[in-house]
Structures are given as structure tokens and as C-alpha cells.
Amino acid sequence: MKEGGIEIIPGFVIAETELRERFSHSPGPGGQGVNTADSRVELMFDVENSGAVPDQLRPIIGLALKNRLVNGVLTVAVHDQRSQLANRKLARARLVGLLQTACIQPRRRRATRRTSGSQRRRLEAKKRRGELKRNRQRPTW
């Protein structure tokens, strides 16, 4: 973490002021304090309208996280620990992890040729299948 912000990758630092947090009762463990402590944390970051996101990364992140974004806002909810502070740290770590994996462009598959063995096996399987179907027909006398 940088001074006053969270570093995702070099050149992409999110200021703490751009993050919104919401707290609520956690459905998880808690003992006697389960109904009094707001230990569940929802951390929200507006990917579409944030000035911290580099312009060249915005469409890449939007495409990678399209199923997690709601109106351009990425939300991470954590209720794993009993304490709110621990859940806040976990939420930030998960947000960083999500954004780091979204920033990495997937490598394109390089097209390769079929091997001669795989072509031969494919044609043999087709011949066997055709022979099987031919044997199902009524015999011609």
C-alpha cells in the first residue's frame, strides 16, 4: 500500500477517498456480539468514473470484470472474520487481487497445425463410425 492509497500496478494507485465502505451485521461467527457488531464490510470502487484508472486499462478492466460490475462499480463483500478491522483489510486485499488479475491481458492462443497422428486417428475413427452405421442397415440380397 502506498502513502494515502492502494497500489494495484505501477502507475495505477487508488486513493482512499475513492473507496466507499458500508458495514452491516455479519451472518458469520460472532458469539454474543453477533447481533451488535457491524463486522460485515462492503468495499465499493467506481471503475468507470475513477480518475485513478489509466485510460488504456479502463476497457480491459471493464471487460474482465463485466460480471462483477454494477453500473461501473466493483463491490467486494467480506464477512470472514469476527472483527470489522480484519474484514476491512481482507476486503482491500481482495479488491487489489481482482483489479490486478483484471489488468493482465490474456495471451492469445497461437494457432497450430494438427499433427499427422491426430489427423490419422480422426480419419480412422470416422471410418469406424461409418462402418458401424453401415452394418446397421438392412442387408441387400
Automatic annotation (TrEMBL):
What are the record keywords, sorted?
Hydrolase
Record's signal peptide: none
Question: Which organism does this record belong to?
Answer: Cutibacterium namnetense
Report residue spans for region: Disordered: 107-141
Can you provide one Gene Ontology molecular function annotated for this UniProt record?
Answer: hydrolase activity
Family under the similarity heading:
Belongs to the prokaryotic/mitochondrial release factor family.
Q: Which residues form the Prokaryotic-type class I peptide chain release factors domain?
A: 13-136
Q: Which NCBIfam families match?
A: PRK09256.1
What's the protein name? Aminoacyl-tRNA hydrolase
The record's annotation in SUPFAM superfamilies points to: Release factor (SSF75620)
- Pfam families with a match to the protein in the record: RF-1 (PF00472)
